[in-house]
Amino acid sequence: MLERDLAGLADCRAGYLIRVGEEGVADNGQGGIVQSPDRWPQGAIALGRWQGEPLAVIAETGEAHWPTPREWLARLDERDFALISTALQVVRWARDHRFCGRCGGAMRQRPGEFMMQCTKCGLRSYPRISPCIITLVTWRDRLLLARSPRFAAGRFSTLAGFIEPGESAEEAVRREVLEEVGVQVGRISYYRSQSWPMPHSLMLGFYAEAASRELRVDGVEIEAADWFDANTLPGLPPSYSISRGLIENFLRGTARRE
Ligand SMILES: [Zn+2]
């Protein structure tokens, strides 16, 4: 488990390291992403403590073919997701916030915090986290699953979308479901959340009971949608995704009721 006590690591220069490239994350030679303890290279950013020892991330360029984040998520234990998710998001933040968005001045990280501050005007920048809703719409024992044109052939999934400024998560669930498949939603209940570092989403999982059943697919974000049951399931999202968790958890519940 990653202990997020950054304040105690402000002067730390050695410990475990995660190496993040432009496309992938380095293997440690034993199937994991955490490299053996050593002196940290220049530019390493402390992330916290892992197994009691300091852990940092370094951004590298020109890597060979390191596994992609998605390949790692399929491979790692779920308890290690926080490591790769934190490393990827902190590296992206440091890379994309080198200059102030207000005055163009250089930004510098404050040691012991995930905070960059403009050296000219003082504007502060924190790692960006973009909240998204992801929802399984249900009607009795039926699941509403849809596919985006970007999906692999035959795969369907739950509906998802970014929360817009000024909107609550529940409002985003109702809006996204109506926009994407034309269904009105009744009762909404919270499931759980998952950090999704491609590139910096926080997925908030919900169940939504359908108040109407007719589907009207938007044809842009969604190219097909349908009602399924446990015996007629299409190809599903990968096992590590919260989308799959929403589906499996619902199917376990309906199996118990029979
Ligand atoms: Zn500035």
From TrEMBL:
Stored Gene3D superfamilies: 3.90.79.20, Nucleoside Triphosphate Pyrophosphohydrolase
Catalytic activity: a 5'-end NAD(+)-phospho-ribonucleoside in mRNA + H2O = a 5'-end phospho-adenosine-phospho-ribonucleoside in mRNA + beta-nicotinamide D-ribonucleotide + 2 H(+)
One GO MF term: hydrolase activity
Entry EC number(s): 3.6.1.22
InterPro entries: NAD-cap_RNA_hydrolase_NudC (IPR050241), NudC-like_C (IPR049734), Nudix_hydrolase (IPR020476), NUDIX_hydrolase-like_dom_sf (IPR015797), NUDIX_hydrolase_CS (IPR020084), NUDIX_hydrolase_dom (IPR000086), Znr_NADH_PPase (IPR015376)
Pfam families for the chain: NUDIX, Zn_ribbon_NUD
Cofactor: Mg(2+); Zn(2+)
Residue span(s) of domain Nudix hydrolase: 127-250
Record-linked PROSITE patterns: NUDIX, NUDIX_BOX
CDD domains, A to Z: NUDIX_NADH_pyrophosphatase_Nudt13 (cd03429)
Enzyme class: hydrolase
Keywords of the record: Hydrolase, Magnesium, Metal-binding, NAD
The family this protein is said to belong to: Belongs to the Nudix hydrolase family. NudC subfamily.
Name of the protein in its database record: NAD(+) diphosphatase
Organism: Kushneria aurantia
